[in-house]
Amino acid sequence: MLGEPFKKARNVIQVLEDNGYEAYFVGGSVRDYLLDVPVGDIDIATNAKPDEMLSLFERTVPVGIEHGTVLILDGDHEFEVTTYRVEGEYDDFRRPDSVEFVRDITLDLSRRDFTINAMAMNLDGDIIDPYGGQEHLLQKEIHTVGQPKDRFTEDALRMLRAVRFASQLNFEIAHDVNDAIIEYGPLINHVAVERIQVELFKMFKGVGLKQGLHSLNSTQLYKSLPVFKEEHSLLTRLNETVKNPIPFENVMIATLTLLSQEHDLNNWVKAYKLSNKLKKESLHLLNCYDEYRRNGINETLVYQLTADYFGHFVELVFIIDQVSIDASELTTLFEQLPIRTRSDLAVTGHDIMSMFPNEKRGPWIGEYLSNIEQLVLQSKLINNRTEIERQVKRWKEQESN
Ligand SMILES: Nc1ccn([C@@H]2O[C@H](COP(=O)(O)OP(=O)(O)OP(=O)(O)O)[C@@H](O)[C@H]2O)c(=O)n1
């Protein structure tokens, strides 16, 4: 019996078959189904040409028609359906100049990266596996379809995909594949860094991260990856410290603190074109970790962190210091705080300004607010408007004396 995600796509395949075409589930979904792990996106391959698909289905989006891909919408679901194809010449190690549609699924599977990704499955669960994918799943090994050199010169990103799958599936990279990555690794510089970023994020989240880190080392691929190539001890340190999958921001922060060298976050951000959001979150965690280093776990730390970041922070401290913090300890402290954000204060910047109508606005207001915030947080000042105003007046008087 096929599982839920496949059932949702049943109708699309059925329509194609009823109209005399072939259609199969292909790629990662078949791999994950055979491994009995949760299945992600469902990709379908068919011998119907794109224009034939467009005429068969009512709701379609021609997302990549020149490459044979049509998005077919069915109920609340959408599926990428791609005409069997082989790829033309690759000039730049990253994308084919052209594709050629073919009528045979085996040919379509032959242009795929790894044997474990080169299987097809029909609605009855029968598997087409011309390159030994099932055997390699059992052996827990990553083999290319055909010669590694051919697959890697077609798309250099595949070398990092090998490492990502090693981590995600806890598999070993076959020797010939490993050797080819050592030889062709530098070609990855032709690949857009955004694509590299996606694979690295997935790699660090792999359940077999140890294996992934080992593969990044044994393939020497790290020598061609931004930041990793500049800091040779980075990978060794990660290997020694990392036990579980980690999000990429923790990778950056952990290495920044572990290496304690001139190596700033901007380096990572620029090299991997990371988002501003990720940069902001990473800086936040980095500052919180500094606070923790200086003063340990206290009110200021949990207030600064905010509850959203507790999980992340616990992981980070474990990676850097191998210390297990109990997240519930952070939660209890947080719940006892007199305020949870600055907006919980009984006064605003505006209130303080209006206490001194003759004073010019300026940074002093922010400084006052931040001092009030600290005192309230440490329970040295009650969060009450009259009390706070009294304290502010005292400060002003001291300043004018
Ligand atoms: N550089 C690439 C990328 C993809 N593929 C093929 O396209 C399929 C779909 O690719 P993708 O969605 O990127 O990866 P999945 O294998 O589906 O894995 P996941 O969903 O876990 O990312 C792969 O299984 C593989 O057959 C390939 O041959 N070469």
TrEMBL record:
<keyword id="KW-0067">ATP-binding</keyword>
<dbReference type="GO" id="GO:0042245">
    <property type="term" value="P:RNA repair"/>
</dbReference>
<dbReference type="Pfam" id="PF01743">
    <property type="entry name" value="PolyA_pol"/>
</dbReference>
<feature type="binding site">
    <location>
        <position position="112"/>
    </location>
    <ligand>
        <name>CTP</name>
    </ligand>
</feature>
<keyword id="KW-0819">tRNA processing</keyword>
<comment type="similarity">
    <text>Belongs to the tRNA nucleotidyltransferase/poly(A) polymerase family. Bacterial CCA-adding enzyme type 3 subfamily.</text>
</comment>
<dbReference type="InterPro" id="IPR023068">
    <property type="entry name" value="CCA-adding_enz_firmicutes"/>
</dbReference>
<dbReference type="GO" id="GO:0000287">
    <property type="term" value="F:magnesium ion binding"/>
</dbReference>
<dbReference type="GO" id="GO:0160016">
    <property type="term" value="F:CCACCA tRNA nucleotidyltransferase activity"/>
</dbReference>
<feature type="domain" description="tRNA nucleotidyltransferase/poly(A) polymerase RNA and SrmB- binding">
    <location>
        <begin position="170"/>
        <end position="228"/>
    </location>
</feature>
<feature type="binding site">
    <location>
        <position position="28"/>
    </location>
    <ligand>
        <name>ATP</name>
    </ligand>
</feature>
<keyword id="KW-0808">Transferase</keyword>
<dbReference type="GO" id="GO:0000049">
    <property type="term" value="F:tRNA binding"/>
</dbReference>
<feature type="binding site">
    <location>
        <position position="41"/>
    </location>
    <ligand>
        <name>Mg(2+)</name>
    </ligand>
</feature>
<feature type="binding site">
    <location>
        <position position="112"/>
    </location>
    <ligand>
        <name>ATP</name>
    </ligand>
</feature>
<feature type="binding site">
    <location>
        <position position="161"/>
    </location>
    <ligand>
        <name>CTP</name>
    </ligand>
</feature>
<feature type="domain" description="Poly A polymerase head">
    <location>
        <begin position="23"/>
        <end position="142"/>
    </location>
</feature>
<protein>
    <recommendedName>
        <fullName>CCA-adding enzyme</fullName>
        <ecNumber>2.7.7.72</ecNumber>
    </recommendedName>
</protein>
<feature type="binding site">
    <location>
        <position position="164"/>
    </location>
    <ligand>
        <name>CTP</name>
    </ligand>
</feature>
<feature type="binding site">
    <location>
        <position position="161"/>
    </location>
    <ligand>
        <name>ATP</name>
    </ligand>
</feature>
<dbReference type="Pfam" id="PF13735">
    <property type="entry name" value="tRNA_NucTran2_2"/>
</dbReference>
<feature type="binding site">
    <location>
        <position position="31"/>
    </location>
    <ligand>
        <name>ATP</name>
    </ligand>
</feature>
<dbReference type="InterPro" id="IPR002646">
    <property type="entry name" value="PolA_pol_head_dom"/>
</dbReference>
<feature type="binding site">
    <location>
        <position position="43"/>
    </location>
    <ligand>
        <name>Mg(2+)</name>
    </ligand>
</feature>
<dbReference type="InterPro" id="IPR032828">
    <property type="entry name" value="PolyA_RNA-bd"/>
</dbReference>
<dbReference type="InterPro" id="IPR043519">
    <property type="entry name" value="NT_sf"/>
</dbReference>
<feature type="binding site">
    <location>
        <position position="155"/>
    </location>
    <ligand>
        <name>ATP</name>
    </ligand>
</feature>
<feature type="binding site">
    <location>
        <position position="164"/>
    </location>
    <ligand>
        <name>ATP</name>
    </ligand>
</feature>
<keyword id="KW-0547">Nucleotide-binding</keyword>
<feature type="domain" description="CCA-adding enzyme C-terminal">
    <location>
        <begin position="253"/>
        <end position="389"/>
    </location>
</feature>
<dbReference type="Pfam" id="PF12627">
    <property type="entry name" value="PolyA_pol_RNAbd"/>
</dbReference>
<feature type="binding site">
    <location>
        <position position="155"/>
    </location>
    <ligand>
        <name>CTP</name>
    </ligand>
</feature>
<keyword id="KW-0460">Magnesium</keyword>
<keyword id="KW-0694">RNA-binding</keyword>
<feature type="binding site">
    <location>
        <position position="158"/>
    </location>
    <ligand>
        <name>CTP</name>
    </ligand>
</feature>
<feature type="binding site">
    <location>
        <position position="31"/>
    </location>
    <ligand>
        <name>CTP</name>
    </ligand>
</feature>
<keyword id="KW-0479">Metal-binding</keyword>
<keyword id="KW-0548">Nucleotidyltransferase</keyword>
<dbReference type="InterPro" id="IPR050264">
    <property type="entry name" value="Bact_CCA-adding_enz_type3_sf"/>
</dbReference>
<dbReference type="GO" id="GO:0004810">
    <property type="term" value="F:CCA tRNA nucleotidyltransferase activity"/>
</dbReference>
<dbReference type="GO" id="GO:0001680">
    <property type="term" value="P:tRNA 3'-terminal CCA addition"/>
</dbReference>
<comment type="subunit">
    <text>Homodimer.</text>
</comment>
